[in-house]
Amino acid sequence: MSSEQSSLAKRNFTAFLWKSGQRQQLILFVVLVGLVIFFSLTTSSFFTLNNVLNVARQISMMGIVAAGMTMVLLIGGIDLSIASTVALAGVVAGLLMNKAGVDPWIAIVLGLTAAAVIGSVNGLIVTIVGIPSLITTLGMLTVVRGLAFIFTGGYPVFGFPNSVRFFGEGYLFGIPVPVIIMILVFVAVWLLLYRTYIGRHIYALGGNYEATRLSGIKTKKLQLIVFTLSGFLSGIAGIVLMGRLNSGQPNAVQGFELDVITAVVLGGVSISGGQGKLVGVLFGVLIMGVLANGLILLNVGEFYQMVVKGMVLLIAVGIDRIYGRHHTTAT
After folding, report:
1. 181-219 as b/e: b if 16+ CB within 10 A
2. What is the pTM of this model?
């Protein structure tokens, strides 16, 4: 393929993504603004600086993990082990600092490495053994969570240097550090998806696996990369959580994977793969964060919140399936 043809293909690819996603992003923006207005009118404490910063801090961890989940869904997969990986990354880093006296920076790097290894194991099982990602990551969800409990004996890990709290509670230029980390992650993933050939291959793989394989793209290697990145980003969220709680919790964020999947699918990423934009995912994360915070301020019970979140997931997936059928019929 000539450089001119390659350039034309890139422009067509970008134009397609923009045209197919801009309407949905507008709808998501309207929904987000509507929620903000509703909760601002119904509770006086919602639209305050402290609460806005609190919401931003709360959604940062979800946003970091959602960026990884976006890539997994785009290739037609799913990663249910993310919540367990978040917990294990914090536990590993915490134990290394608390029990082994390892330098905090080295401990954090090793915690992130452990999370990336978990993602790599997911990818290897999917690509080499051939077990579907749903079953693979469902099994790893239990395995990894079990390891976190084994390593800690079921108890939280405490006793970190104050510098560790910076990742969860610190500020830079008045902005919470977790929010800055989330922004950097989104920028990095955006560049990967829309400014590199890897991103184009990710969309192609989710759109048509067999055609992508026959075109010469190393599909198994690509899947391995995506699952490894998902694990690594879950590890980053684990370090943020460790800093925020000032402890490594083996039972942390149980069920968190459902919130992340809801946010990503709500943001327009198809569960069938190959469709969706990262900007929409950011809107999905913001909507989930605002909704959760607003319901708490309105004193809505936890059980009712579970019902609302489940309904949002069903609505998001339902819209995705209806759009998928319409798109298939149109083409």
Report:
1. bbeebbeebbebbbeeeebbbbbbbbbebeebeeeebeb
2. 0.87
